[in-house]
Write a structure and sequence with these properties.
Length: 420
């Protein structure tokens, strides 16, 4: 179900522009439209629209930082405040569970107003909310409140936003574009564990939160300002000054109505598979650092192994994206998701050794890296882009429930049994 690409005479816009005209130039490069519609090749799509994938790469990384780094902060928070690990993880659970009722609403806003009007304020708010974690004073109620505020802010930069931007822009190369944008999550898995460990050791955990917000928040906001446009934004830009141009209506877009989506069996299957894989994936992602250290791995080596899993995650995203464009997307997705079970099996004590730990982190990283991208791509294939924000928003709600319960479940298991 691949809708055709609307393109204009982008070649008429020059690539050379000074800093003062950068915004206008980027908008023109991304968005000149004509009334004609015809398919274009993957390479042509990338030549025209690569800035959207780049903005998605940086933007989707920002809300991933808090989850990825939370496990590394556990020891520091425990030493200063003597908090149980389940209660530390409960803050992340609160932020994740906020997505359950509100993700479809945010998706509806994206469908109505476009990604730009939602994404720019969301990036700014998420950056400030992440920096606010440095204000924790030992009160668990305040800690939960900080995570609640962060969760509300992160709603507006959740994967729905970036998947909608990609799906409304790319057609022939949509799966690969999603894999590139979602690789921002994997970049975080590579960079954040050792960076967070270094910041905590040298500046303290409070400064670490603030610097993480600056390092990942400001670049994503600046690049999104210049590069984040979808079809609605580009159509709006092309209509300025032209009263004769028709409005972009929902019916002009290809895809299912809400009633048709409710009756779609493939969408229910996609949701169920994503729910299960993310439950285990989120639990492991948050608790991987203490899991490794309690298995005898040093903190430094645990951070390096987490980064190694991030490298495998990038490979998983890009390889899965390439394969799903060329072969049966459902089959590729099911095989990739199933690989996580193999990795977890290798971490069990009877089979655990230095070699199997490395192999397990590679396998889990590869599988974990592709799970959200698989859901986003298959949803666009079976639902189209007409109501993509609403439909994928529901998917994100379900996955948020699993993502919130996974870390909490891992913390409860540890508190009750003394191990993972």
């Amino acid at each position: 179900m691949r809708s055709q690409q609307r393109v204009g005479n982008a070649g008429a816009v020059g690539w050379k522009c000074d800093l003062r005209s950068l915004y206008a130039c980027s908008a023109g490069l991304l968005g000149e439209l004509s009334s004609m519609s015809f398919p274009v090749s993957r390479s042509e799509e990338w030549r025209r629209h690569w800035p959207v994938a780049f903005a998605g790469f940086l933007g989707i990384a920002l809300p991933t930082v808090a989850m990825t780094s939370s496990g590394i902060f556990i020891t520091s928070l425990d030493e200063e405040f003597s908090w149980p690990r389940a209660e530390v993880a409960a803050g992340l659970t609160i932020a994740s569970l906020i997505s359950i009722p509100f993700s479809p609403m945010v998706g509806a806003l994206i469908d109505r107003y476009g990604v730009r009007r939602i994404g720019l304020p969301g990036l700014a708010a998420t950056t400030l909310a992440m920096a606010a974690f440095s204000l924790a004073d030992g009160s668990l109620s305040q800690w939960m409140l900080l995570w609640f505020v962060y969760g509300v802010a992160a709603l507006f930069v959740q994967p729905t936003l970036w998947a909608a931007a990609i799906s409304n822009t790319f057609h022939a190369g949509r799966s690969t574009a999603l894999s590139v944008a979602f690789s921002g999550m994997s970049m975080v898995l590579i960079a954040v564990p050792p960076l967070t460990e270094w910041l905590i050791n040298n500046l303290g955990w409070r400064s670490a939160y603030a610097w993480l917000a600056v390092i990942f928040g400001l670049p994503s906001l600046v690049i999104a300002y210049f590069c984040l446009f979808d079809d609605r934004d580009r159509r709006t830009l092309s209509m300025k000054g032209s009263s004769a141009a028709p409005a972009l209506t929902e019916s002009a877009l290809d895809g299912l109505t809400i009633a048709e989506a409710i009756r779609s069996v493939p969408l229910y299957r996609i949701a169920a598979a994503s729910l299960i894989t993310l439950l285990f994936g989120a639990a492991f992602l948050v608790h991987q650092f203490p899991i490794l250290t309690e298995a005898g791995v040093s903190r430094q080596n645990a951070a390096l192994l987490a980064s190694l899993a991030g490298v495998a995650s990038v490979t998983g995203k890009l390889m899965t994206g390439w394969l799903m464009e060329r072969y049966d997307g459902g089959l590729i997705g099911s095989i990739t998701n199933s690989m996580m079970a193999v990795g977890i099996f290798l971490l069990w004590e009877p089979f655990r050794s230095p070699l199997t730990i490395v192999i397990a982190m590679l396998v889990i990283g590869y599988s974990n890296g592709a799970k959200l991208q698989i859901c986003a791509f298959l949803t666009s294939v079976y639902a189209g882009v007409r109501n993509y924000g609403k439909i994928f928003g529901v998917m994100v709600s379900m996955m948020a429930g699993a993502g919130g319960l996974g870390p909490l479940l891992g913390g409860i298991i540890y508190d009750q049994t003394g191990g993972y």
